[in-house]
Amino acid sequence: xxxxxxxxxxxxxxxxxxxxxxxxxxxxxxxxxxxxxxxxxxxxxxxxxxxxxxxxxxxxxxxxxxxxxxxxxxxxxxxxxxxxxxxxxxxxxxxxxxxxxxxxxxxxxxxxxxxxxxxxxxxxxxxxxxxxxxxxxxxxxxxxxxxxxxxxxxxxxxxxxxxxxxxxxxxxxxxxxxxxxxxxxxxxxxxxxxxxxxxxxxxxxxxxxxxxxxxxxxxxxxxxxxxxxxxxxxxxxxxxxxxxxxxxxxxxxxxxxxxxxxxxxxxxxxxxxxxxxxxxxxxxxxxxxxxxxxxxxxxxxxxxxxxxxxxxxxxxxx
Length: 318
Hints:
Number of domains: 1
Number of strands: 0
Order of helices and strands: HHHHHHHHHHHHH
Helix content: 40-55%
Largest sheet: none
CATH topology: Rhomboid-like fold
CATH class: Mainly Alpha
CATH architecture: Up-down Bundle
Oligomer: single chain
Radius of gyration: 22 Å
Structural class: mainly alpha
């Protein structure tokens, strides 16, 4: 997932390091030290090692034409590329370790899979792609807004992505932190919109971010990619950004020392966006969970939605 700097935080007069950002006014907010995002990266790496330990390819793969990849890693070696081209474990191991599977969530009451699937990855390529994206996106957000708000966006967006994925993809398993990552992208977009007055190059920031989001959602329409998790995570994070990432409007900091020109800390449109986002988020998650545990199939309610996750062409089928 690509990323470019589109916003700026931290304390006033931080020097030349801020030359590439789009803020017009420096805020007096605390510049946080990022520790949660690195901890999440370490946790994902540790979980992947644990999954490969449980997978134990050499013990389970037999036959001359079914050799594990990188056999020198012994029990940590990967499944044959025909089975898993991402250099990772088998689907049965992922299912055992907590992958998202509709039947187990609905019929076997294993709702915890909606969260555990965020910490699993299909292979080393999948893992490295997501973790690099998380570092590029998440560390800067955590430095600006702190670990509590970014952590909430990450987890709740991952849940939103899992819910939408379960409603539309009911014949396969799903794993990965992509829903949570798209939630951070969605939060970046809503943060830009709700804090519009503090940006200098508004059009440049908006176009840059929309381009990044469009490219990544477009890639999600390729086969074997769970774009419903991306979309669900993005929409959840988009709402959360209006709720958790609101900043004081332009000029409020300076007006506090001038009682004759005192400004409101937040503008009316920020309050409106906050209320609307709360309502949409609560209703959306509630309706999604009710539909999921009632066993509803989202494709029956939206006949064309399956194209959002995989668009068939002459080069591939879905």
